[in-house]
Each structure stands twice: as structure tokens, then as C-alpha cells.
Design brief:
CATH superfamily of the largest domain: MutM-like, N-terminal
Structural class: alpha+beta
Helix content: 10-25%
Radius of gyration: 20 Å
Strand order of the largest sheet: 1-6-7-5
Number of helices: 6
Distance between the termini: 29 Å
CATH architecture of the largest domain: Alpha-Beta Barrel
Shape: globular
CATH class of the largest domain: Alpha Beta
Largest sheet: 4 strands, antiparallel
Number of domains: 2
Number of strands: 10
DNA sequence: AATGAAACCTGACAGC
DNA sequence: TGCTGTCAGGTTTCAT
């Protein structure tokens, strides 16, 4: 479900609520495909350790785990929410939702719960070297909010795939998904199918600006709740009210009233205005 | 190397 | 009511 703004909202929310707490017990469900690291490794990394920090890297939520009374992390717990994953902080008396696959019980009794109906989510553990040997998880690509204009342009140099497909490629930029790819292309006035290598420098500069603006605004709105996205408290975002094209097939363009088109590109529903985007 | 299509799952919703 | 088909915030794998 979640893209950069939703993952950012969740990570910030979880961080505020559980930073500094100790994990006293861990439950991991029986679905093996969710665990990208061995189960015993994951239990060993989590159990009896403290949560130094929770943050977002790309679409991943990173838990920095430290020994008690120490600050430098020894391991990281990585959570990828896939399409339908949720990460909730709840009191123990609140009933476990269906499809709960992991529960971390904290020293104040509260629980961090990983819930994922479709099971496209993934959990993994990264061990950190003793003397800062490993920097830990740095993500799969460049960070869209901080990438410079020149680096952004260089990413797409000589690429012949449609621009939207490349926006979704997590080894180039990480964090952009279907909603924000469609929305940023609309705001930049670029058709999703355009070959990246045929975009002008000015268009690429416009796209970077549009992408950063739309991501920042979405974070400020707590993300987009299209079907079932909620933050760490189970609260919905409201950036879906600002969508110009995503899931608005046939509805009038907010700028020119032309009905929004839907095509399939890179296997994904793709929405654009045929008049505003050229 | 790069691109595209299919596969992995469940749930919600529209139409009959 | 219940069936079928479509669609959904993502990534990986396989074929070209």
C-alpha cells in the first residue's frame, strides 16, 4: 500500500511512540515468505534489545536496535509493507487484527504489530559491524527528496523505457510508487509513456521539482488513504483529496476539465490528462 | 544491460 | 444471496 509519504508518516509515528523502549518478547507468525532472514536470527536481534530509533529509508522502515544502556545500534530490523502491510502500536487489550504476522511486546506492555493481508510485505534483519564496519541499510536507490538536479538528470540519461516505468524503478529512485509517479508526471505536464531519453533537460528539472513538491505535500497531509492505509495509530491520511489523476479515470481534469485517461503501463494502472500532459 | 510481462496473495466492489 | 470479473499503495523472476 504505502509509498514514501505513507512510510515516512508511519516511521515518524512509530518512532515518536516507541523510541527508547525495550523489547521484552517477540511473536513471529508461521508464514515463511514474510521472513527474508532466518527466524532465529530475527528473534535474537529483537529480543531484549532497545529501539534506538525508527526511520524511513526508501519504502523501508528501519528499526535501529541497541543493547540496553548502550546507544550505538548492533542490528537493524527492516520492515517493508508491500501493498497492504500495516505497522501499528497498540495496547495489549486491543484485539489482534486478522493477518497479524509479527508482534513485539515492549517493556511498557504496548505492542508493535505487523499486519499484512496480502503478504507482499517483508521482514529482515541486518547485523552491524563492531566498529562501524557496516553503515547499515542505505536503501536501494537515490532519495527523491534530496537528490540534486544534476544527479536526477543523470539517472535517466539514455534510458529508453517510459518515464513512469523508471520512476517506479527502486534501484534508481527509492520511495516512488504508482500514486506519486502519476501525480508528479501530471504536475510536470509529461505523458507517462514518454521515453526518458527524449525528455528535455527542462522537462526533467520540472519533473524533479513536481515530484519533490508532491511528496512533501503528501507527507504534510499524513499520506494518501486510498483503500486501507493507516498510520501507527490507525488514523487515515488525507492526501487522496489532493489527487489530480490517480484513480480519477473519466473524471474531469482539475485544470482543464478533460476526462482523465487510464492505460496500463509497466503492469500498473496509469492515469493522465491528455490535454495537460504532452 | 534493459525492458516487459507474469506471478505472488487477499479483499473490496460492481454487475449479473 | 452468491457468483464472476476487475482492480488495488509492490517486488521478484523469467523471457525476450
Amino acid at each position: 500500500m504505502p509509498e514514501l509519504p505513507e512510510v515516512e508518516t508511519i516511521a515518524q509515528g512509530v518512532n515518536t511512540r516507541v523510541r527508547g523502549r525495550r523489547i521484552v518478547s517477540v511473536f513471529l507468525g508461521s508464514k515463511p515468505e514474510l521472513l527474508k532472514s532466518p527466524r532465529n536470527e530475527m528473534l535474537r536481534a529483537l529480543k531484549h534489545h532497545s529501539i534506538a530509533q525508527v526511520r524511513r529509508v526508501g519504502k523501508h522502515i528501519v528499526f535501529d536496535l541497541a543493547r540496553e544502556a548502550e546507544t550505538s545500534p548492533i542490528a537493524q530490523w527492516l520492515v517493508h509493507l508491500g501493498m497492504t502491510g500495516r505497522l501499528l502500536v497498540a495496547q495489549p487489550e486491543v484485539p489482534l487484527p486478522a493477518h497479524t504476522h509479527a508482534v513485539l511486546r515492549l517493556d511498557d506492555q504496548r505492542e508493535i504489530r505487523f499486519v499484512d493481508a496480502r503478504r507482499f510485505g517483508r521482514l529482515s534483519v541486518l547485523w552491524l559491524g563492531e566498529d562501524g564496519m557496516s553503515k547499515g541499510f542505505v536503501g536501494t536507490g537515490r532519495e527523491p527528496l534530496t537528490i540534486s538536479a544534476e544527479e536526477f538528470i543523470a539517472l535517466f540519461h539514455r534510458r529508453k523505457a517510459p518515464m513512469k516505468s523508471l520512476l517506479l524503478n527502486q534501484s534508481l529512485l527509492h520511495g516512488v510508487g504508482n500514486i506519486y509517479a502519476d501525480e508528479s508526471l501530471f504536475h510536470a505536464g509529461i505523458r507517462p509513456k514518454r521515453q526518458a531519453s527524449r525528455l528535455t533537460r527542462a522537462e526533467l528539472l520540472r519533473l524533479r521539482k513536481a515530484l519533490q513538491t508532491v511528496l512533501r505535500k503528501a507527507i504534510a497531509s499524513g499520506g494518501s488513504s486510498v483503500s486501507d492505509y493507516v498510520d501507527a495509530d490507525g488514523v487515515q491520511g488525507f492526501f487522496q483529496l489532493e489527487h489530480c489523476v490517480y484513480l480519477r479515470t473519466g473524471e474531469p481534469c482539475r485544470a482543464c476539465q478533460t476526462p482523465i485517461q487510464r492505460i496500463v503501463l509497466a503492469g500498473r494502472g496509469t492515469h493522465y490528462c491528455s490535454r495537460c500532459q504532452s
